[in-house]
Write a structure and sequence with these properties.
Elements: H1 5-15, H2 22-70, H3 77-91, H4 96-111
Helix pairs in contact: 1-2, 3-4
Length: 117
């Protein structure tokens, strides 16, 4: 990471025992104000980037959300359990057997159905 020029100059002036401490303090204040300006500009840029990404991907996400509401996917607990298990298996393929066993137990526990196999 690089150094901030006004801060570096102020540090060198203070280490040489500059007769008046106003100029090094002025440089340190410039550094502080520059950092605040940089942080503010970065937050503004990140917010705009988030809005742009949201605007670009909302049509695809909106179709999925509206279709889920249309077919009442959230009210279908088995479908939600299968979707959640599928997401876990995609994220962590090594948990496939464990997720299958938990789903089988949940089906037996909540629906009263006997597991297959």
């Amino acid at each position: 990471m690089g150094y901030w020029v006004p801060q570096d100059v102020a540090g060198r002036l203070m280490s040489f025992g500059h007769t008046t401490a106003q100029f090094p303090q002025f440089l340190i204040l410039i550094t502080a104000f520059d950092l605040l300006t940089a942080i503010t500009a970065s937050l503004f840029t990140l917010t705009l980037l988030g809005v742009l990404i949201h605007r670009a991907f909302w049509p695809v996400i909106g179709i999925l959300v509206y279709q889920a509401a249309r077919y009442r996917l959230v009210h279908n607990h088995k479908a939600m359990a299968m979707l959640g298990a599928g997401c876990v298996v995609v994220a962590f393929p090594s948990l496939q057997g464990l997720v299958g066993a938990i789903l089988a137990w949940l089906i037996v526990f909540f629906a009263g159905e006997k597991p297959r196999g």
